[in-house]
């Protein structure tokens, strides 16, 4: 009887752990979706939309548990997103997006953020990378002036 109780308790613990893990991944996945919103707003040359998307990113980052993503990493992400949110100039927002992208690329390699592939794209003119949920290039560093400049450098599954 004790053996069955222990087995049942361990099974229940495993189910709870898996449930908690998927919830944690959901929080970080939402952060990725907020990042994509920032990238899309920059690609469409919309400073106001970029600022709003960065504000949503900050809210999501603030809700993530430090046990999941370190406080230091979250602080860096929030700092970059805050600079983007507070900037009213699209060029200033794009400058900070370099750092945000590099940090999000690192985070994406640690967590499964999407069921679909995530593409790391690169613009040689800007010498900058970014994440995308599609292969089509929508350059956030130049927007409409060079929207398709860049290429897919790698794929994170």
What's the structural blueprint in terms of helices and strands?
Elements: H1 2-43, H2 47-63, H3 71-86, H4 90-110, E1 118-123, E2 128-132, E3 151-156
Helix pairs in contact: 1-2, 1-4, 2-3, 3-4
Keywords:
single chain; 157 residues; mainly alpha; three-stranded antiparallel β-sheet
Low-pLDDT residue spans: 1-24
Tally of helical runs = 4
Broad structural category:
mainly alpha
Query: What coarse outline follows from CA principal-axis ratios?
Result: globular
What does this structure look like?
The chain is mainly α and 157 residues long. 61% of the residues lie in helices and 11% in strands. The chain has four helices and three strands. The chain has helices spanning 2-43, 47-63, 71-86, 90-110, and strands spanning 118-123, 128-132, 151-156. It has a three-stranded antiparallel sheet with strand order 2-1-3. Helix 2 runs antiparallel to helix 3. It is globular.
């Amino acid at each position: 009887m004790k053996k069955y109780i222990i087995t049942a308790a361990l099974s229940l613990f495993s189910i709870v752990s898996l449930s908690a893990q998927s919830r944690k991944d959901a929080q970080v996945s939402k952060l990725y979706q907020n990042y994509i919103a920032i990238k899309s707003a920059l690609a469409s040359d919309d400073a106001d939309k970029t600022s709003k998307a960065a504000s949503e990113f900050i809210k999501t980052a603030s809700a993530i548990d430090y046990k999941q993503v370190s406080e230091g990493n979250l602080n860096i992400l929030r700092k970059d997103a805050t600079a983007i949110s507070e900037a009213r100039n699209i060029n200033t927002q794009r400058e900070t997006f370099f750092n945000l992208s590099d940090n999000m690329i690192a985070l994406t390699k640690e967590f499964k953020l999407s069921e679909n592939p995530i593409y790391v794209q690169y613009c040689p003119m800007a010498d900058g990378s970014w994440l995308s949920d599609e292969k089509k290039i929508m350059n956030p560093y130049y927007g409409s002036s060079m929207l398709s400049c860049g290429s897919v450098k790698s794929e994170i599954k």
